[in-house]
Amino acid sequence: MAKDERDVAELLKTELDFIEKGGYGRSVRTPWKETSPFRESLTCVNYALPEKAHPCSECHLIDFVPVEKRDELVPCHFIPLTETGETVEDLEVEGNQTKMEEALKQWMRRKIQEIEAQRAATPQK
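and the corresponding structure tokens:
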């Protein structure tokens, strides 16, 4: 279970906004280096840290990762994004940045809607 104190719906909204504004384009500082979805955004519990200071198990995204993939180096890259189960890992290998970003955006929109619908259906105390 994630230990991140931040609200998962708000994190996904921030990530979605980040991608919609071109967040995973090439860095001006390191244009030769591809950026890594989730890992290089505010969503990541290790964002802007030179080393992986926090285990991925502390991140909200771990709850979306299949159990058998949670020990991967970057487990969030194994979240099934599409109906056919494509992941960031799969889409990076394919090399189609536009397709990957579209899959990420659609996945985040679905998850945000699911979380908000679940919260609306849960009685408030």
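(Above: one complete record from the training split.) The chain has one domain: 8-121.
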